[in-house]
Amino acid sequence: MSESKNIVLGVSGSIAAHKAIDLASQLTKGGHRVDVVLTRDAQEFVKSLPFRTLTRRPVVTSLYDEDETGVTHIRFADNADLMLVAPATANTIAKLANGFADDALGCVALALNPGVPVLVAPAMNGKMWQHPATQTNVQMLRERRVEFIGPDEGMLSCGYEGVGRLWPVEGIADRTLELLRGVE
Fold first, then answer.
1. Where is 23: in which H helix or E strand?
2. Coil, helix or strand for 21?
3. What is the pLDDT of residues 51-69, one digit of tens each?
4. Pairing relationship of beta strands 82-88 and 118-122 according to DSSP bridges
5. Lowest mean pLDDT among 35-39, 56-60, 158-162
6. Which of 15, 119, 127, 160 is the most exposed place for a label (fewest CB within 10 A)?
7. How many CA atoms lie within 13 A of 84 on its CB side?
8. What fold, for 6-181?
9. Is 107 a catalytic residue?
10. For residue 23, how far is the Cα from the chain centroid?
């Protein structure tokens, strides 16, 4: 295995948030340190305990979380070799594109060291994904070298068939590891 890297996993408020638990587990089992940031809306779907248990790391749930070293979200950003946002809602994508720093996830994203890769795995209703506002935000992020994986097509939790499903966890983990191999 290659050298252990630091991954910040941002989880936003999608029904697919439960899949981020498996993603955190896979990346941790791969020998990497996974620091999880749960948005307030993500906490409506998942709790911090499974992430803390599987990663053996603290989980940030608030902009005001601190530890013995100070403000946790800034430490997460300073130490990150890669930031992964999975699942990423339309709201989270909009906030990232427009530089909103009203929660810990937005602050980590803005405080990342230059050149740290960012991978975003969208999950939302297909109409939300295809909406011009979302597509404009995606394009803005791509212009800043943010990479997107997915969304996938299939049956959505809202009952519609179409694009918007979270990319398979194994695929997200594989792409994350590929990106990390390019990080010095």
1. helix 19-29
2. helix
3. 999 999 989 998 877 666 6
4. parallel
5. 158-162
6. 160
7. 31
8. Rossmann fold (3.40.50)
9. no
10. 10
DSSP state, residue 83: E
16-37 average pLDDT score: 96
Distance CA 123, CA 167 (A): 8
| Strand boundaries in the chain, DSSP class E | 6-11, 33-38, 59-60, 66-67, 70-71, 82-88, 118-122, 147-148, 152-155, 161-165
Closest by CA to 17, choosing from 94, 122, 163, is 122
Distance from the Cα of residue 152 to its chain's centroid:
16
Residue the block writes with tokens 């295995």: 1
The dihedral sign for the CA sequence 84, 20, 148, 184? positive
Point out the catalytic residue in the list 158, 161, 170, 174. 158
- Convert 72-92 to b/e letters by CB count within 10 Å (16 or more is b): bbebbbeebbbbbbbbbbbbb
pTM surpassing 0.85? yes
Distance CA 130, CA 122 (A): 12
For 150, residues 6+ apart whose C-beta sits below 8 A from its C-beta are 121, 122, 123, 165, 166, 167, 171, 172
